[in-house]
Records
---
Amino acid sequence: MESLRITDGAPGLTALVGRATGLDASASARFQSLDADAPAVDVYVTTPFDCIASRRVSGEASRDGAVVAASDLLAALQAGRAEVGAARDPNWPGALPPREGFTVRDEVPVSVARQLADKGRELARQFSGPMGPPKSLLDSTVLTADAESASPVEIPMRMIFTCTSLGFIPGFAAPIDIPRHLRVSTAGRWVRLDAPFGSVYHSTGLGLFV
């Protein structure tokens, strides 16, 4: 039985895991313990958009790299239990992004991301089939960060969809002290979007989990 003992950040993690299981009832969650002055854990969840998402909490996991069913984690969080279910390590589809080495490349107003997501959802309603939005729409580049550099960063619609579907982008009524931008970072083949309420990762070139 795996455990996650949280001292701060439980409400935000509960919101993330709840949305992740709403998108995919079979979603998995994975814990990455951080070396810091105070114990902390990055909790990653899978999504149906070929992206993974994470949120950081203060506390300790039973084991670095442990994987559990997101539905089990959600039930434990809602009940206030530290025990979060049986280990399901084989269910995780690949490696996690690197712990370190990300370089900030650009910042994008959340209003731009919100507009892109609204447009994407409209297109998805028009062209989606039984399996959801078409791959061509998810793969389409909707934003180019650090555009003037020698290696601009292309942001696909799937990353924007993930941010909005998981509630990472604040609404208009959010408190004034909540940041109003997305930070774009890269590390090798990984692209990361840091939003006010969580981070989204996508791997370029080789596919997410290769």
---
Amino acid sequence: MLVAIPLFPRVTALDAVGPYEVLQRIPSIDVTFVGDRRGEVRTENGMLGVACDATFDEIDAPDVVVVPGGVGTRKLIHDETISGWLRAVHPRTIFTTSVCTGALLLAGAGLLDGLTATTHWRAADLLNELGARYVPDRVVEHLPERIITAAGVSSGIDMALRLTELLVDRVAAQAAQLIIEYDPQPPFGAGSLAKADEATVARATEYLQARQ
């Protein structure tokens, strides 16, 4: 089973690597990072390089697609290279999924029209403008449409565990969870917009704006 994870300049690293770490633990699953060209792309702050091992033309029938987010998604919403690839491969995927603002690329390709979906809280309005209906859930599933979206960054791990359950079985998902020792016990209760206080939201907004 082949999982394709598209990469692009200014991608958020964990959006891609979180699901990779879950899915690559399953022996029957191969994960390939794809892009418009082979080679390195830099993550959103430029501090980390990740490599595309195949081009979109080379991966034309993946079983699963996981689209990560990042600042770079804003320039790609109407980019025909990635939008065209998503529209071309989606009819044959088992699932087409996104993490964080990767949902903007699914929406830009027309795959979320009229569907509820989630993304990073800062991109909620833009997601709505692109034809989806934002909901502040960690993972949103539309199994008949074969679409799953996950909220910001770390939620991609949750989505990948659920995806593993759907693709293989519950025990496989639990085994992957155990292998990566994913047992979150955060020191603070500020991991969602609903939980964060005003000062935390203001600081987060300041930091996000500094990276745009």
